[in-house]
Amino acid sequence: MPRIIVLALAFALAQPIAAQPIAMGAAPDYPEAESGTPPDAVPMTLERMMQILRALDPEAEVQGPLARLTVAETVVLVVSDPRADRMRVMVPVRPAEGLSAEELQRMMQANFDTALDARYAIAKGVVWAAFIHPLGALGKEQLIEGIGQTVNLAQTYGTLYTSGGLSYGGGDSSDLQRELIDELQKKGQEI
Fold first, then answer.
1. What residue segments make up the domains of the chain, in order of their start?
2. What is the DSSP code string of the chain?
3. Cβ–Cβ contacts within 10 Å for residue 94, how many?
4. How many CB atoms lie within 10 A of CB 15?
5. pLDDT (0 to 100) of residue 182
6. Is pTM beyond 0.85 here?
7. How far apart are CA 22 and CA 185, in angstroms?
8. Who has greater pLDDT, 25 or 175?
9. CB pairs under 8 A, 24+ apart, for 25-28?
10. Which residue has the higher pLDDT, 172 or 20?
11. How confident is the model at residue 26 (pLDDT cuts 50, 70, 90)?
């Protein structure tokens, strides 16, 4: 999918989030972190999230609350709305047109047991792998894990339909898919 179309889709998907009124007034007010506070105890901000994304891919493209990076040769889009305290990681999987009932059922089954924190979704005529989370409560490790799970979910579409974080039963698949998440964790350790 051409980069400009992917960014346009990400922007279009972000619009409904930004347009929604914020429940109960304003975005959550998180206390300032004290020195010595573990990094995941620090509330996530848009700036911090973009710093983490650039550590994962130094060539990441950032435009305000939108980011495009490449992880394991897969285009990853990150859309955030600090006012609504939401973010989402998205990977385009395939056009939704032509999706069979069996494929849809298999995606829903995966959403229940093997997708874990990432999910399959359909929006704007595209099947997506997505990870959605409140921005302020998001920890660095959760963000990195969510990106890894989303990439794994997109890459295993049509085969294992798994985020790689957990697999029931034996075999080699879980270890192979866990490698990506472990690699991303190492890249993000310095932040």
1. 3-19+41-188
2. --HHHHHHHHHHHHHHHHHSPPTTSSS--PPPPPTT--GGGSPP-HHHHHHHHHHH-TT-EEETTEEEEEETTEEEEEEEETTTTEEEEEEEEEESTT--HHHHHHHHHHHHHTSTTSEEEEETTEEEEEEEEESTT--HHHHHHHHHHHHHHHHTTTTT---SS--SSSSSHHHHHHHHHHHHHHHHTT-
3. 15
4. 11
5. 84
6. no
7. 32
8. 175
9. 26/83, 27/82, 27/83, 27/84, 27/85, 27/136, 28/85, 28/134, 28/136, 28/137
10. 172
11. very low
Structure tokens belonging to residue 14 = 């972000």
Nearest CA-CA partner of 115 in 157, 87, 75 = 157
- Six-digit token pair at 85? 């305290």
55 phi/psi in degrees, rounded to 5: -70, -35
- Residues 70 and 91: their CA atoms lie apart, in Å, by 10
Domain 3-19+41-188 CATH assignment equals 3.90.105.10: no
